[in-house]
Prior knowledge:
This protein is of the alpha/beta class. The chain has 4 helices and 5 strands, in the order H-H-E-E-E-H-E-H-E.
Amino acid sequence: xxxxxxxxxxxxxxxxxxxxxxxxxxxxxxxxxxxxxxxxxxxxxxxxxxxxxxxxxxxxxxxxxxxxxxxxxxxxxxxxxxxxxxxxxxxxxxxxxxxxxxxxxxxxxxxxxxxxxxxxxxxxxxxxxxxxxxxxxxxxxxxxxxx
Length: 147
């Protein structure tokens, strides 16, 4: 009697790596990173003023939106006189002016005693008027003896 196992050929071991599970994991990670990458940019791009800030040198007269202590808005277009203005009229006037003069600087001058929310609201109005860049005006710090 011959044993059954002797005639059977022995199988050789495979020395290959099955990479299919690794490809699946890689694709899942790729999808996760593609979904989460746009969510990482949640901040607002702002430029904070420096302590030794220099004044802006510009050939054009800036458009100045002023906010007084009570939160009333005033508009100065170029070399014209400062005039009180309502929020809706401000958006319309600034929008038209910036469309004609896209490189004109637009500045917000807020009273030191004004509520920050009122100054912020003026900036929101300028954003709704499609102003690309808004600057904040300030006075240089004076020495203690000069006051």
